[in-house]
Write a structure and sequence with these properties.
The protein has 545 residues and is of the alpha+beta class. Helix 2 runs parallel beside helix 6. It has an eight-stranded mixed sheet with strand order 5-4-3-6-2-1-7-8. Strands 17-16-24-20-19-18 form a six-stranded mixed sheet. Strands 9-10-13-11-12 form a five-stranded mixed sheet, with helices on both faces. The longest helix has 19 residues. The N and C termini lie far apart (95 Å). The chain binds adenosine-5'-diphosphate and magnesium ion. Magnesium ion binds next to helix 2.
Length: 545
């Protein structure tokens, strides 16, 4: 076959594929245009999973009548003029191809500033006067009707609808100052009022979640992150953005998850909205046709910017509190289980956690140890139970991490140096991680090709567990992260559940736990303590004074 230029309509439909993959991408582009036009109120209608109708109405600037036709031409934009402008983009759109792309694969009507234009499959059908109204309305029908191949790739109606809703939710969260309304097949699926982030989070994730969020309070980061006790089993509720633009970024997702390391169990993920403010001149947003990815000139700086904001917010998280099931305790309305046993047991109460403001603050007075595993203490707000192993793990973890940071190890020389056999990979790890090992307090020297001599170990690690600790730490340093290695070392060095502790040891552990940050969980994310509030005891014993 000879080579010839494609007819315009075919070329346009091919180009459209990059921008318009599915109904949600149409909605995304229309929403971005509404936002770029300075809208305060945006209303979205989805029918038939976006294939029948996607309608976006805004109250923004609108398009001048003489520009209307131009807006639907490829590479026609009001948002940049010169190549230099591309260096510092502050609008969501800039490629000037969304409207053209959408019109190439659908039936589109756009009404703005008293004028209406109607295109289908890339062809202009009509342009005429319309009743003047503020803002712009874009209606997209019969999406992909002329590109059956694309239609075949669409997923189920439920999936495509969910993808549309997700796009709307993302912008509703990133612009909590605006009012969004989404209806899906005639039913309201999302409504925000523009009253701020907590409200928007309530609308998207529900009120209870909104109450669990810690607002970021950093100059160049807006948003909120969930307290560790509120998490999800997947990453769907993580929203990362730069300059109000939602992005996917593995490094930033990793930066976020690192902030929760040690306070979320494996496989659990936070809920968050993080909108970083980054100088547009240090970004390249033009790496992906749908603008989902971004390249940073200084990725490390953005990484740090995120972690600083999130860590500061998380420093305000709260300790879980024990709450007796209130309804069962008051008046004659006692549940069957309460009745059977004739009393509401602590055990029953212990199953219920609830969020109450403020941590247990104040100084704890040690009372004793039970089951050789829990410490009991009295605090100003109630009785505190402490898991001695988890608590000690946290204390040691923070201490080890401090030593790594300060480079000041504390170690105990071994009276008899220990010869430890290692496999080849572990031998390499010893060589590669000398500095970390030293700052943890391990003093290791090569001893033949397959073994090392351990001359000293961290002060806290019992001699009987030194070898196991070294092996685990090497494993951690090699495969996973330093924090994982520290968590393992802490686990090996901590008192065990089942160790009987002298009163002096109990007191010291309680004091240390109170002085440590993130003390409410162990490095693996399990809770270290539980508070039984005096209030609950009073209620339980029906003491009304
Ligand atoms: P881009 O957003 O990249 O400029 P589009 O194809 O999405 O390209 O839009 C083309 C132009 O049409 C925009 O630059 C803008 O001037 C205008 N436009 C599109 N939608 C709207 C809207 N909702 N309100 C005001 N102007 C709009
Ligand atoms: Mg656009």
């Amino acid at each position: 076959m000879s080579i010839r230029p494609l007819p315009q309509a075919v070329a346009d439909a091919i180009a459209a594929g990059e921008v318009v993959e599915r109904p949600a991408s149409v909605l995304k582009e229309l929403l971005e245009n509404a936002l770029d036009a300075g809208a305060g109120r945006i209303s979205i209608e989805i029918r038939g999973a976006g294939r029948n109708l996607i309608r976006v109405a805004d109250d923004g600037l609108g398009i001048a009548p003489e520009d209307l036709r131009l807006a639907f031409q490829r590479h026609a934009t009001s948002k940049l003029a010169t190549l230099d402008d591309l260096e510092s983009i502050s609008t969501l759109g800039f490629r000037g191809e969304a409207l053209a792309s959408i019109a190439a694969v659908a039936d589109v009507e756009c009404t703005t500033r008293g004028r209406r234009i109607h295109l289908r499959g890339g062809r202009l059908l009509e342009e005429a006067a319309a009743a003047p109204a503020p803002g712009t309305v874009v209606e997209v029908r019969d999406l992909f009707a002329n590109t059956p191949a694309r239609l075949k790739f669409l997923k189920s109606e439920a999936t495509e609808t969910a993808a549309c809703l997700r796009v709307a939710q993302q912008y509703a969260l990133l612009r909590p100052d605006l009012a969004f309304q989404v209806t899906v097949d005639g039913k309201v699926a999302l409504r925000t009022t523009g009253a701020g982030l907590p409200d928007a989070i309530g609308a998207v994730h529900g009120r209870p979640v909104a109450g669990e969020m810690l607002l970021l309070n950093a100059p160049a980061a807006r948003g909120a992150v969930s307290q560790p006790r509120t998490s999800r089993g997947n990453r769907d509720a993580i929203l990362l953005a730069v300059n109000h633009r939602p992005i996917t970024s593995r490094p930033l997702a990793f930066a976020l998850e690192e902030c929760y390391r040690g306070s979320l169990e494996r496989g659990r993920f936070p809920i968050c909205v993080i909108d970083l403010e980054v100088d547009p001149a240090t970004l390249d947003v033009n790496v992906h046709p749908a603008k989902r990815e971004i390249r940073f000139r200084d990725e490390g700086a953005v990484f740090a910017q995120l972690q600083k904001a999130v860590r500061a917010a998380l420093a305000g998280s709260e300790v879980p509190r024990l709450r007796a099931p209130v309804a069962n305790l008051q008046g004659g309305e006692r549940s069957n289980s309460t009745h059977r046993s004739g009393q509401l047991t602590m055990h029953e109460a212990a199953l219920k956690f609830a969020a109450v403001a403020n941590g247990p603050g104040g100084v704890l007075r040690p009372i004793g140890q039970v089951r050789d595993g829990y410490l009991v203490a009295e605090g100003p707000e109630g009785l505190v139970l402490i898991d001695q192993h988890a608590a000690h793990e946290r204390v040691l973890f923070n201490r080890f991490r401090g030593r790594i940071e300060s480079g000041k190890p504390l170690s105990q020389p071994l009276l008899i140096p220990l010869t430890v056999e290692l496999d080849a990979a572990a031998m390499v790890a010893v060589a590669d991680h000398q500095a970390e090992l030293r700052s943890l307090g391990f003093q290791v020297e090569a001893f033949g090709t397959r073994s090392v001599r351990l001359l000293a170990a961290p002060l806290e690690t019992p001699v009987s567990r030194v070898e196991g600790a070294l092996l685990e730490v090497l494993d951690g340093l090699r495969g996973r992260s330093l924090d994982a290695a520290l968590a393992t070392l802490s686990c090996h060095s901590a008192v065990r559940f089942g160790d009987s502790l002298e009163p002096a040891e109990q007191r010291r552990l309680i004091e240390e736990l109170q002085g440590t940050s993130s003390g409410e969980t162990c490095p693996h994310g399990r809770p270290t303590r539980l508070l039984l509030e005096w209030q609950e005891l009073k209620r339980h014993f029906r003491r009304n004074y």
